[in-house]
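Notebook entry, cofactor series.
This is the third protein in the set we're modelling with a bound small molecule. For this one the ligand is flavin-adenine dinucleotide. I'm keeping the input format identical across the series so the outputs can be compared line by line later. Sequence and SMILES below, as received.
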Amino acid sequence: MQIHPLIGIGFGPSNIALAIALKERECASPGMQPIFIEKQARFAWHKDMLLEHAHMQVSFLKDLATLRNPTSRFTFINYLHEKGRLQDFINLKTFFPSRHEFNDYLAWAASKFEDRCIYGQEVIEVLPEERNGRVEWLRVRSRDAQGSVHERLGQNLVMSIGGTPSIPEQFKHLRADARVLHSSSYLRSIAGHPKALRIAVVGAGQSAAEIFMDLHGRYATAEIDLIMRARSIRPSDDSPFVNEIFNADFVDHVYSRPQDERGALLREFWHTNYACPDLELIESIFKVFYEQKVRGDTRHRFLRRHEVQDARATSDGIHLGLQDLNSGIRHGVRYDVVVLATGYGREHHKTLLAPLAPYLGDFSVSRDYQVRTTPECKPAIFLQGACEDSHGLSDTLLSVTSVRTGEIGDALLATQEEKSRVARMEQLALQA
Ligand SMILES: Cc1cc2nc3c(=O)[nH]c(=O)nc-3n(C[C@H](O)[C@H](O)[C@H](O)COP(=O)(O)OP(=O)(O)OC[C@H]3O[C@@H](n4cnc5c(N)ncnc54)[C@H](O)[C@@H]3O)c2cc1C
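Returned structure with ligand:
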């Protein structure tokens, strides 16, 4: 079986950026030809949230390459140039392209690595491949759409698998019910409910706000309840001094702080990334409710300070037990569809790496995103997008992606050099 110098799990923006960073240092690391395994049949960036009017929440300059290498041919500007839209884009006068356009940019970049990515296979586990009491390689097991299992051996691993839908406890028993859907599958799932009349959207973030507006436009007569615990919808703070927490060098600062200080930093700036839709979007929602008041209409409701206490499925719909947190009063409401815009968890790498448990500690990572292992584990394992606790709020976003992949590239190169040095020493010792 072929042994790959590097296997990447997932081929979203993080690993595409890594493919670019490694390609651009090919002369420094000629042996570091990676392969990537992606569960989707072809590249797509959060395809079920590519809503009509959605746009980027970070500047296009935080693309796959610019901050690491502004002269790269993989920048968003070069993409526009190749597509013949650079001047038109300049005339748009925006830093925030539509998500449709950014998806097209990412797909364009991904297409340059067709020979490096195996699409349509989901990695199901990573096992240690032991030789003489040491983990020499990693055996990466994946499953294709037909159910066949494939295995590949890698010297190093980079896991960039994004988040997994976070389903609140009250809804876990309804996971198989098509009337309860998570925002991650929104477009695909809502298409199955062309006649929904009563819909609940649970959540207070960008996705909840976008979905509320999409449903408002999609159904001429449906009644939509926007349900959240918060007292109001707060906008994201992207003012310049606050935005500095998303600068690449802020990662050094966060990483160097003691754990309790890091926790305090995350709490202080939590609202720059979570439960904070764009101001423009909040204003659109406010306008919808205002126009209802003008018409004396109560089609949609903003159920702020409301908590979903339980959820029950019957043949006529999903019944939510709601508690008004101000009055303490409880009431039940029946819905045809419930949309959970309740975010993502970032723990799945632990499940995939579980067979390596004897060689891993608490999944803590070094500054260069490498999981700490025992000395018996030779392969280096890197995490992208699962290091918010140690590296800060930018970790799950695009903000530092290009710089981070440069750092991982350096670390991989150093690892390879160290392995070659040790191999040479062992060879010399054998000859002596
Ligand atoms: C709707 C939405 C909009 C967003 N907009 C912005 C934005 O404007 N700006 C910003 O900075 N951030 C945004 N984000 C945050 C988002 O996390 C990043 O933009 C970016 O997608 C992170 O890239 P990634 O490659 O780390 O993760 P992902 O984009 O999630 O990619 C992970 C990839 O791994 C694949 N995968 C997962 N598990 C496996 C497995 N077991 N085997 C094989 N493949 C697997 C997935 O199919 C996916 O393609 C948004 C997130 C969402 C959900």
